[in-house]
Amino acid sequence: MNCCVVESITARFVFVLLRCSQDVLTDRLQHRKGHFFNASLLQSQMDTFHEPLENEFDLITDGTRTVSEIVDLVISVI
């Protein structure tokens, strides 16, 4: 467990992997306004991405969930 002490409070870092398809990522990128990452760059990122080992993350979940659902899930594990 990775912990640090900040002002007498112990904080745990939680690593979260949001899994979703390239189609979902492309759609999200195309609908972002003013974001620095152009959707045309996604393919090169997908080509170099390697699926991490299950033990490298505290939580692996469906990246198509709503932000509220993901936040609730993360809070439930910390």
Structure description:
- The chain is α+β, with helices and mostly antiparallel strands and 78 residues long.
- The chain has one domain.
- 36% of the residues lie in helices and 21% in strands.
- The model is unreliable at 1-9 (pLDDT under 50).
Topology readout:
Blueprint: E1 3-6, E2 9-12, E3 16-19, H1 22-31, H2 42-48, E4 59-62, H3 67-77
Parallel strand pairs: 3-4
Antiparallel strand pairs: 1-2
Q: Count the DSSP helices.
A: 3
- Radius of gyration over all CA atoms, rounded: 16 Å
Low-confidence stretches: 1-9
Widest sheet, order of strands: 1-2
Beta-strand content bin: 15-25%
Number of domains: 1
- For the termini, the CA-CA separation is 11 Å
Please state the average pLDDT score. 79
Helix/strand/pairing category: alpha+beta
Order of helices and strands: EEEHHEH
Strand elements, count = 4
The helix fraction, in percent, is 25-40%
Shape: globular
Largest sheet: 2 strands, antiparallel
Descriptive key words:
78 residues; 4 strands; two-stranded parallel ribbon
Gist of the model:
This protein has helices at 22-31, 42-48, 67-77; strands at 3-6, 9-12, 16-19, 59-62.
